[in-house]
């Protein structure tokens, strides 16, 4: 991982790895303890009427935040390079709130066709019911998105690489075209995290993360984050307040704790993920590997230009095989769990097929598709587990 050094608004020149360790901590308020305590509470007591009515208090009611929540928000805003961060109980809650912060009835929004499927369901169900039209676009459209812009296009939603299928988007080109027409640009930055992609340096107005994934890092908490630039900050703050979004303090504590090791974890996820991806690309059962860090990936040049690393998530397309053969392969795996989500310390694999819900593009691969998350296990052990799985697939198919 490149140890980028950015000057923040206070003039600090510290690498992202250093910020992971030191941001979101206030030893003076924590009685000297290294980690902030979990502060639970709803009611906040004021010493007198003047302080109750002044509006100047840092904390007024549990729904509006606590020291535990505030420290995580401050840490993520600093890490992202944004003006403010607001938290939500899940990644989808953060996505939904961020979208609603910028649209109203009669608006038109552009959303990448490779978007996280729950985001798509929210657009197709909730936004549609509210009178907002969603149009899906080819994720590799780049500057060509300007042809889809209308007078009422309010925002463009990006996700790079694409969920499941891993198309890389030219976000700077998309952002330039959107801003020229007065539209906002939002991105789901969960895959890269702010360590490997800096959305605000590439024209994004709001960066969204499912902090459930790499920030928490241990598959034991649900959390979402919206980080806005100065132009979008007031809208994000307002929707957060109006929705009463209130993550649990225990989850925020786990995110703060997980964040401290995210740098070393991500580096390991990247190294192991690339090694397994290269190994899979040489397997006779595999047709192609969808990992932007590989030179043969169609979006590799964009990844090299805009990103400083890769996480442990990618997909593969197998040569033709029956559903039963793939199940035989996966059901016997010992180190790869069959489960949704990703970003934890454990390796995972799930079959997927987005053909029924793509609309701007066609998903018609030559064989079954599998999405892998490479965890922190020994890479040779993971290869042995997968090799045994391929033996089962071949035995069933043979």
From TrEMBL:
UniProt cross-references to PROSITE patterns, sorted A to Z: CYS_MET_METAB_PP (PS00868)
Biological pathway: Amino-acid biosynthesis; L-methionine biosynthesis via de novo pathway; L-homocysteine from L-cystathionine: step 1/1
Reactions performed catalytically: an S-substituted L-cysteine + H2O = a thiol + pyruvate + NH4(+); L,L-cystathionine + H2O = L-homocysteine + pyruvate + NH4(+)
Cofactor(s) annotated in UniProt: pyridoxal 5'-phosphate
A biological process from GO: L-cysteine catabolic process to pyruvate
UniProt modified residues of type N6-(pyridoxal phosphate)lysine: 213
GO molecular-function terms, A-Z: cysteine-S-conjugate beta-lyase activity; pyridoxal phosphate binding
Keyword Magnesium: no
Domain of life according to the entry: Bacteria
Protein family according to the UniProt entry: Belongs to the trans-sulfuration enzymes family.
Protein name, entry field: Cystathionine beta-lyase
Species of the source: Dichotomicrobium thermohalophilum
């Amino acid at each position: 991982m490149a140890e980028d050094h950015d000057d923040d608004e206070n003039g600090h020149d510290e690498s992202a790895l250093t910020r992971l360790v030191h941001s979101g901590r206030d030893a003076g308020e924590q009685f000297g303890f290294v980690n902030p305590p979990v502060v639970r509470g709803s009611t906040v007591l004021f010493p007198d009427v003047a302080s109750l009515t002044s509006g100047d208090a840092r904390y007024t009611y549990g729904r509006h935040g606590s020291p535990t929540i505030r420290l995580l928000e401050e840490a993520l805003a600093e890490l992202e390079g944004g003006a403010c961060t607001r938290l939500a109980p899940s990644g989808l809650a953060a996505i939904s709130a961020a979208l609603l912060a910028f649209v109203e009835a009669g608006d038109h929004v552009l959303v990448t066709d490779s978007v996280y499927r729950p985001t798509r369901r929210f657009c197709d169900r909730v936004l549609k019911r509210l009178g907002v039209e969603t149009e899906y676009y080819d994720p590799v459209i780049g500057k060509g998105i300007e042809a889809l812009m209308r007078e009422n296009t309010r925002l463009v939603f990006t996700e790079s690489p694409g969920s499941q299928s891993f198309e890389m988007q030219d976000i700077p080109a998309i952002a330039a075209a959107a801003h020229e027409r007065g539209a906002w640009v939002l991105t789901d930055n969960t895959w890269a995290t702010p360590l490997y992609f800096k959305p605000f340096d590439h024209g994004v107005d709001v960066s969204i993360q499912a902090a459930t994934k790499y920030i928490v890092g241990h598959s034991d908490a649900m959390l979402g984050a919206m980080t806005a630039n100065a132009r979008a900050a007031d809208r994000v703050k307002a929707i957060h307040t109006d929705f009463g979004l209130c993550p649990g303090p225990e989850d925020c504590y786990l995110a703060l704790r997980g964040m401290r090791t995210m740098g070393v974890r991500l580096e390991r996820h990247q190294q192991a993920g690339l090694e397994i991806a290269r190994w899979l690309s040489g397997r006779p059962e595999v047709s192609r590997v969808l990992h932007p860090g590989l030179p043969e990936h169609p979006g590799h040049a964009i990844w090299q230009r805009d990103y400083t690393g890769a996480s442990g998530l990618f997909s593969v397309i197998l040569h033709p095989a029956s559903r039963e053969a793939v199940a035989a392969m996966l059901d016997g795996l010992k180190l790869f769990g069959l489960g949704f989500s990703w970003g934890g310390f454990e390796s995972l694999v799930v079959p997927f097929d987005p053909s029924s819900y793509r609309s701007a593009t066609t998903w018609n691969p030559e064989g079954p598709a599998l999405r892998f998350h490479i965890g922190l296990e020994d890479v040779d052990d993971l290869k042995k587990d997968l090799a045994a799985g391929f033996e089962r697939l071949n035995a069933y198919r043979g």
